[in-house]
């Protein structure tokens, strides 16, 4: 579904990505992991067209999307839950969801506000609250729901549970597990290796703008030295 082939990205004169390769197949959950500052968010922004590429290409569903503006990338079926959540602060929960609602691919069972309120009951009770008044956990639930309202073919989550309370993190992981079971393709960035190896099919580790390891959950979970080398603080 998604193929990232040798992408290179710069901020001004500083090169950040040095030939990143990764793939996400239909129905897979794939992770992008590594320490802070290694290029994970830049990879996501490069995929989404938020930052222009200096080299390489991004292909989605067999079509090269490199060079497309980010809104067109989203319309092709990639939903982003950005780092920092970035909900619309002066819109209510309902208005945040209405703002992105679309069913461009004619799903027989599209995401609706009520389905999302069933998945995140705490949002249902805050449906008239402004985005700026929500807790961090509620904002993350809203950011995920807002992305799902586009009925994406691929969902990308950048720092899925960063800074959230343990109970909220557990709720987010349960949500992602349910999405996986429904066949949703997902690319996720997070630091919780135990949760990631439980729900993900494959993993890519980034170090200084390069993929230094890729493999399945069994291989990652069994290699403590690998985790310490590239993921330990």
Description:
The protein is globular. 36% of the residues lie in helices and 26% in strands. The chain has ten helices and ten strands. The chain has a domain of 119 residues: P-loop containing nucleotide triphosphate hydrolases (Rossmann fold). With 233 residues, it is of the alpha/beta class. The model has no long low-confidence stretch (mean pLDDT 95). The two termini are 33 Å apart. The relative contact order is 0.18.
Relevant terms:
233 residues; four-stranded antiparallel β-sheet; 36% helix; Rossmann fold; six-stranded mixed β-sheet; alpha/beta; 10 helices
List the helices and strands and how they pair.
Blueprint: E1 2-11, E2 14-24, E3 29-33, H1 40-48, E4 55-60, E5 63-64, H2 70-75, E6 78-81, H3 93-100, H4 113-119, H5 121-124, H6 136-148, E7 154-158, H7 166-181, E8 185-189, H8 193-199, E9 202-207, E10 210-216, H9 217-222, H10 224-230
Parallel strand pairs: 3-8, 3-9, 6-7, 7-8
Antiparallel strand pairs: 1-2, 1-4, 4-5, 9-10
Helix pairs in contact: 3-6
């Amino acid at each position: 579904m998604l193929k990232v082939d040798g992408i290179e990205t710069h901020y001004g004169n500083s090169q950040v990505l040095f030939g990143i390769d990764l793939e996400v197949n239909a129905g897979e959950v794939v992770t992008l992991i590594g320490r802070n500052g290694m290029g994970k968010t830049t990879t996501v922004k490069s995929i989404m067209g938020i930052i222009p590429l200096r080299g390489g290409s991004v292909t989605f569903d067999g079509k090269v999307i490199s060079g497309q503006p980010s809104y067109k990338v989203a319309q092709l079926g990639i939903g982003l839950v950005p780092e920092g959540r970035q909900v619309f602060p002066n819109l209510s929960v309902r208005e945040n969801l209405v703002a992105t609602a679309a069913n461009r691919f004619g799903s027989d069972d599209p995401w609706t506000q009520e389905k999302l309120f069933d998945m995140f009951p705490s949002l249902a009770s805050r449906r008239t609250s402004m985005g700026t008044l929500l807790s961090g956990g509620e904002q993350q639930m809203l950011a995920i729901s807002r992305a799902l309202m586009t009925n994406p073919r691929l969902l990308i989550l950048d720092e899925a549970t960063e800074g959230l309370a343990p109970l909220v993190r557990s709720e987010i992981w349960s949500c992602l597990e349910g999405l996986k079971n429904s066949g949703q393709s997902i690319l996720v960035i997070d630091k919780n290796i135990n949760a990631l190896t439980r729900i993900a099919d494959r993993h890519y580790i980034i170090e200084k703008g390069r993929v230094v390891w890729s493999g399945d959950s069994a291989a990652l979970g069994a290699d403590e030295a690998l985790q310490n080398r590239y993921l330990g603080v």
